[in-house]
Structure formats: C-alpha cells, structure tokens
Amino acid sequence: MKWEHFFKDHILMRGYDYYKNGAVAELESDGDIIRAEVSGTEDYEVEICLKNNKIDDMYCSCPYADGGNNCKHMAAVLYAYEEENDCREAAFDIAKSVNAADDAFVRRFLINLLRNDKKLCAQFKRALSEPDDFDLNYYKIRANEIAEEHSDNYDYISYRDAYFFDEEISREFSDAAEYLIENKRYDEALDLSLFMIEFLCGLDIDDSDGCIGLLLGGCEELLLDIIRRGGAQTESRVFAEMLNAARKTSYELAKICYDKFIMTYFDDKKFLDEKLAYIDEMIEIYDKSDSYHREYAVPKYLAARLELMQESCGDDEIENFCRKYGAHMNVRRFLTDKYIEEEKYEDAINILNESLKTDEDFPGLIRDYLKKLNELYKITNDYDNYLGALWRLVLKSYELSDYTELKAQYTESEWKQKRERVFEAVKSYYQKAEIFYTEGLYDRLLDCAISDSGLVIVRKYKDALVPLFPNEILDKYTAEVQKEARFTSVREKYKMLVSVLREMRELPQGKERVQNIAAEWREKYRRRRAMMEELNAL
C-alpha cells in the first residue's frame, strides 16, 4: 500500500521518528480500519479508514489534524502498521522519478509550485544563491516573521498555534543549518545556533507540547556537530562564544542551556580555569541578587564548582571553599559526605548538628540529617546521642521502621509508658493507625478509622476491625456513602458508590443495610438517571 504521498516530507520524517521511538500504542486493525494511540505530551487517537487496501480517510485528535491536515501521528501509525504486517515498500526514489520525467513537465510543475507557495519560493531563491550570500539577518527577520504569523495581538503563541509554529520554524532553520554544515561554514552555523537559542527563549508561547525543548535540543545537536567537524580551533571558539552568551543573556532558560552545554561538553583541561572563573563570577552575582532565581542558581553553581574542584584542587582548598559557603545546604551536605568517606566522623557530626539548626524549617532535610547522625552515633558507639537522635527522628518525622527501632531500645513495660509520647506527637490519622495496628491497640485503631475522612484506613485494616467492631465499621461505610451521594452528580462517582455498596454487602448485616440505602436513593435521587442506571447494575 502506497501512502507517503499523503504527507509533506517533514511530516513524514517526524512521523518516522515517532514510530522509531515507540510512540505508537494499542495498534489494531480489522482490515478496513486501523486504530492506534500515539504518545507525546498528550495521547492522540488516530483512525485510518481503508478501501480496497487504499487510504480512504484519516483522523487524528491533534490540533494540526483538526485543521484538515495530515499529521505526523497518522504517519507514525502507518509506519507501525506496515511493520506489523511486514509489508513495507521501498522508499520513493526521488532522483529516479525526476530524471525519468520530461524536462518541460518538471519546469511547469516547479513554476506552479513556487507561485502557490511563498515559503517554498523563498527556499528556492536561497538554494540558487552563491555560498557567500548567506545572511544571518535574513534568518533573524524570517524567524520574527514566523513568530508574528502565529501570535495573537499580545505577541502570545497559543497551544494550537505553537504546533504550526514548530513545523515552520523547524523546517526553515534545519535547512539553513544543514546547508552551512555541509559547506563547512562553522562560524556562521555557530552564530545561527546562538541566535536561535536567544530567539526561542524569548518567545511568549504555550509550550505544553514541548516544542521549545525539542528546538533547543536541535540547537544543541548543531553545536555538537560544529565541534565534531570543526576541530580544536572551532571548539575553542564555540566555548568562548558560549561563555560570552551565558554572561550576556537576559533569559534564564537560555542561561540554563548555555550552562548545561559549557559544563557537559568541554572536559579538556584547557577549559578548566575559564570554567572555574565563570562559575565564581555567577556565584558572586547570584549570591548578591534578590532575584527569585537565586534560590536555585547559587546551589547549582556551587555544586558545579565542587565537582570541578574534586578533579583539580587539594583537600585544603576544597575545605576552605566549603567553609566560605557553608550557609548553603548542598555545600554542607557535600562536606559531610566527604568527612564520612574519610572516616572523620566527629567533623561530620558537627556539620550535621549545625545543619539541624540552620535548616530547622525544612522537615525533609531534618530527617536526612537525623538519619545520618543516627548512623554516625552507632559507628562511634555514642549510645546516648544515638538514642536522642532516634527520638527526634520519630517525633519529628515518623516512619514505622524508626518507630520499631526505637521500641527495641526499651523493655515491654518501659515502652508502654514511653510510646504515649509518640502517640501524642504523631498527627496523621493514617500514621497513628499504623502504630495502633502494630501495637495491637484495636480500639484506638477504630477511633482513627472513624475520625479519618474516607475509607482508606477502614479498608486497610478491615480484616482486623470487622470481627471486633462490625456495627461500627458498617456505620462508617454508611456515613461515607451517604455523604458522597449528596454531592455527587457524575456517572463515574455513581459507579464508585455502587462498588462501595458491594463491599458493604460482604459485612455482617451488610446486605440488609445496602438494600435500605438503595431503596432510599431510588426515592430521594430518582431524577438522577445515571445513578438509577448504576443502582440497577447493583
């Protein structure tokens, strides 16, 4: 079956990428209809109708297809369909077909094509140009034209328009990049890449579908290609230009792109001093800034600095740096791990105790510090401090494993007194229920189950509670379904309620209770047709 002619070339290429990356799921066919889901940021439904083994109609739920276009998702499904049926045909041989065609026909066809497609006409003009005629300003103007074409009156590109913007800008600049690389014009390719990064990061766009990330990834691939092909001198220029761009940009996303590239791809020692100087400059700038970016930028640069210092600096220099920036959590964490690795346990304990005071408003960090202290006190046989850290861990950040470890430090009679302190400190009904179940305190477990909103605790501990408190559990179920029924108006909720009623029928006296509830609802909510239908299924 031939179908490629239904799609534009760049759509085919993207569809093939989707197919190769495994984006097509739940592919099925009954001979006349092909159905599948194609995954992206969202899942799109595709349906393709066949007639006499030829495509008769195609549908996709994506915005691009909604405008009457054949999309990459359709192409991806057709590639997958061909693979499944082992009937892929040979690719269309463009050169062979053009060479076989009459010259006059080709010229007429091209003239008509260019008259009806201004963008293709512009590409044709560029293709006719001599290599020395490349003009970056043209691409800057063209990029802004494309953005303007797809923007509203407030220069905003909506989700639907972003799809078409992506298609057009990708085609325009991939052609230019390929041309420059093939002609070994690496400096101009670099200038084009840097312009594109700034341009893309400056757009006001709904990027829910991730097109900006993909386009920036294309810029990264182009930069890597420039370095691979251009040699050491080109690599040094790319590095210098990236540093310069990172210092000058006013877009935080662009800065993230530059920083990632600088730190990831320039491993040679000749770049080390400049990387360290750049990082120090950024730390100083952001540490004095009141920008909201400070909270993540400073830790990011500190972590990068420490990673580079491990490769090039001695322990004394690293420790001095850590002391200077010890107010930052990730620096203290780095130094703590370093001391533990070097078995300088007292130094590690001191930093952790300092961190407990500094980061007291961050429960997740406090738990991490206490766990490490706990282990260090065990290693150093400091039982009193170990027990104190364990108590703080349980009272401030309860987990059952810590509770069990704490319980093991006391006799049974001692623990019966000590545990009340934990019961009072733990506020979550779910956590309390876990403790009471572990301790066999089923009356307290029942109180948690009834006091908690919903049926999560009841269901988890039903096997323990129902034999002891059948009436109370049945009443809890009743209260919850009656509450939900009052405020529910959608079928999915009604289905959920009926499933709960089925659970209730398995409880002692449950069948009679469910019958009464169903009868009450049939009268009280008789105008809710969906509810009546679901009750009939009961």
Write a brief caption for the model:
This protein is an alpha+beta fold and 538 residues long. The chain has helices at 9-20, 63-66, 72-84, 94-100, 103-116, 118-128, 136-149, 159-182, 186-201, 211-248, 252-265, 272-287, 294-312, 315-324, 329-341, 345-358, 363-379, 383-396, 400-407, 412-425, 429-439, 442-451, 456-460, 462-465, 470-487, 491-505, 510-524, 529-537; strands at 24-29, 33-39, 43-51, 54-60, 156-157, 204-205.
Structure characteristics:
538 residues, alpha+beta, 4-stranded antiparallel beta sheet, two-stranded parallel ribbon, 28 helices
Question: If you had to describe this structure to a student in words, what would you say it looks like?
Answer:
By secondary structure, the chain is of the alpha+beta class. It is 70% helix and 6% strand. The protein has 28 helices and six strands. The chain has helices spanning 9-20, 63-66, 72-84, 94-100, 103-116, 118-128, 136-149, 159-182, 186-201, 211-248, 252-265, 272-287, 294-312, 315-324, 329-341, 345-358, 363-379, 383-396, 400-407, 412-425, 429-439, 442-451, 456-460, 462-465, 470-487, 491-505, 510-524, 529-537; strands at residues 24-29, 33-39, 43-51, 54-60, 156-157, 204-205. The strands form two sheets. The protein has a four-stranded antiparallel sheet with strand order 1-2-3-4. Strands 5-6 form a two-stranded parallel sheet. β1 and β2 form a beta hairpin. α16 runs antiparallel to α17 and α17 (363-379) packs antiparallel against α18. The model is unreliable at 87-91 (pLDDT under 50).
